[in-house]
Amino acid sequence: MDKLDLITMAREAQKQAYAPYSEFLVGAVLVTKSGKIYTGANIENSSYGLSICAERVAVFKAVNAGEHDFETIIICSSGKGFIYPCGACLQVLAEFSKDITVIITDEKNQHKEYNLNEMLPQVFSLGK
């Protein structure tokens, strides 16, 4: 599956977002090293601290299915400009795959690629 197909999947996942407060819809597609694909969308709560980002939804679905090695994550949103993952999402990704490729998109589906180490150079780790 090529990047444009994955971006299309992230846009589809974005439609499942529950964001009645911010109206900022985010979708994510996570590709595991075994080739499986997991999607996620952000889910808000009136107590904002209990909300969860699309990236973590996808990661937690994958981990729950027994996957721990990730290759790529693609993130898109309903906003303008490129959407970057938050620090919490980067840390969760680093728990499982410090070498994951992070692809961010803008509203025109243009994309940029980063290695997680570029986005989170001083990752917190217990030595894994």
Characterize this entry briefly.
29% of the residues lie in helices and 23% in strands. By secondary structure, the protein is of the alpha+beta class.
- Order of SSEs: HEEHEHEEH
CATH domain fold name = Cytidine Deaminase, domain 2
Spatial sequence of strands, sheet with the most strands: 2-1-3-4-5
Name of the CATH homologous superfamily: Cytidine Deaminase, domain 2
Q: Roughly what fraction of the amino acids lie in strands?
A: 15-25%
Fraction of helical residues: 25-40%
Shape estimate: globular
Largest sheet: 5 strands, mixed
**What's the average pLDDT?**
95
Give structural notes.
It is built from four helices and five strands, in the order H-E-E-H-E-H-E-E-H. The protein has one domain (3-119): Cytidine Deaminase, domain 2 (3-Layer(aba) Sandwich). Strands 2-1-3-4-5 form a five-stranded mixed beta sheet. By secondary structure, the protein is an alpha+beta fold. The mean pLDDT is 95. It has helices at 3-14, 54-64, 87-96, 116-119; strands at residues 26-32, 37-41, 70-77, 101-105, 111-115. The longest helix is centred in the N-terminal third of the chain and has 12 residues, at 3-14. The termini are far apart.
Keywords:
128 residues; Cytidine Deaminase, domain 2; 5-stranded mixed sheet; 29% helix; globular
Describe the SSE topology.
Elements: H1 3-14, E1 26-32, E2 37-41, H2 54-64, E3 70-77, H3 87-96, E4 101-105, E5 111-115, H4 116-119
